[in-house]
Amino acid sequence: METSSRRYAFLGPVGTFTEAALLQVAPDAEHLPMPDVVSALDAVRQGTADRAVVPIENSVEGGVSATLDTLSSGAPLVVVGEALVPISFVLAAPAGTRLEDVRAIATHPHAWAQCRGSVARLVPGAVHVPATSTAAAGALLAERAAAGEPRGSVGYDAALMAPHSAAAYGLQVLAAGVEDNPGAVTRFVVVGRPGRVPARTGADKTTLFVHLPHDDAGALLTMLEQFATRGVNLSRIESRPLGDALGRYAFSIDAEGHLEDERIWATLQGLHRVCPRVVFLGSYPRADRRPVSPAPGFADEDYAAARAWVESLRGDGPA
Ligand SMILES: O=C(O)C(=O)C[C@]1(C(=O)O)C=C[C@@H](O)C=C1
Question: How many A from CA of 202 to the centre of ligand 1?
């Protein structure tokens, strides 16, 4: 947990799952709610915030493309930490709303994707109204109901949001446990401007964004070999379109290990030699604190012993 009094931008408003992640990592910091992931990351770039907390991947819906793409382009940013939040949703509405009154439901697109099946069973035919976050959907509903506006005046009747958030906004729960996959988890990253890399803990991750070495057969293999031949395990790899033409992709990667691990150091050198663009997006402690044990032959001592042996072959000593 970070204890300094830094300013943390996050995907707001109060009551988002992102705020739950922020409360894990920096409960006492100044919290700056932002309307979207890009604004939160830009606040760090511009110096109006010291850190941003943003979602990066969900165990059901996969990568958060706004986060992956904003991290990998523009002024450099680095990940300095991560947090995991268990995800469960309620369907909430102003007091007096009945389930059969619900025609349109607002929430974040990632939340909708995680509840689609249950919602179809609960409220057949209900349509999705996209919101900037789960809490933003509920907040507007609560605000208009408090102002005495009639049901549906915001363009929707209910919101999918976190249980604690529905309670905080004074909304009534029409259905709980609305997620299709109980046990879903979203991973959030703490992002800062480049500076000193967090100290190695032995339970670390390194995040990278890598362009493929060439356009021909085997390009992906050449890139992946850099990790495999140094015994580096990947905990996430996903393609992101380059955006300039169909069929051109780069890869967002989480590798197990820290920049100070010899095998990660060597992997980065290998990637730099063969790939046209490698963006280092940080080495930081894993949220689950699970130690990373290098395979036999890939520990720092193995690299040191191998280096000493090659040095000895130079024949610098007396003839
Ligand atoms: O809308 C929120 O409450 C968020 O924090 C965003 C977000 C996401 O982007 O995935 C975070 C966790 C859930 O998976 C659903 C939505």
Answer: 29
- 185-192 vs 51-58, strand pairing mode: antiparallel
Could you tell me where in the chain the CATH 3.30.70.260 domains are found? 196-319
Peptide bond into 318 cis (omega under 30): no
For ligand 1, atom 15, name the residue with the nearest CA.
111
CA of 314 to the centre of ligand 1 (A): 57
Q: How many CB atoms lie within 10 A of CB 222?
A: 16
CATH 3.40.190.10 in the chain, residue ranges: 1-87+179-195, 90-176
CB of 289 closer than 8 Å to CB of 264: no
Question: pLDDT tens digits for 209-233?
Answer: 999 987 788 999 999 999 999 999 9
Look up residue 65 and give its amino acid.
S
Strand partners, 171: none
Amino acid, single-letter form, for residue 237: I
Distance 55 CA to ligand 1 centre (A): 7
Specify the ligand 1 atom closest to the Cα of 136.
1
From the list 146, 179, 147, 183, the residue with the least C-alpha distance to 162 is 179
Decide: 105 and 174 in contact? Cβ < 8 Å: no
pTM of the prediction?
A: 0.94
Q: For domain 90-176, give the CATH number.
A: 3.40.190.10
Determine whether domain 196-319 maps to CATH 3.90.1310.10.
no
31, 63, 114, 249, 277 from 109: Cα distances, Å = 24, 13, 9, 24, 31
Residue with the smallest CA separation from ligand 1 atom 10 is: 110
- Predicted complex ipTM exceeds 0.85: yes
Instruction: Return mean pLDDT, the chain.
Output: 95
Homologous superfamily (CATH) for 1-87+179-195 = Periplasmic binding protein-like II (3.40.190.10)
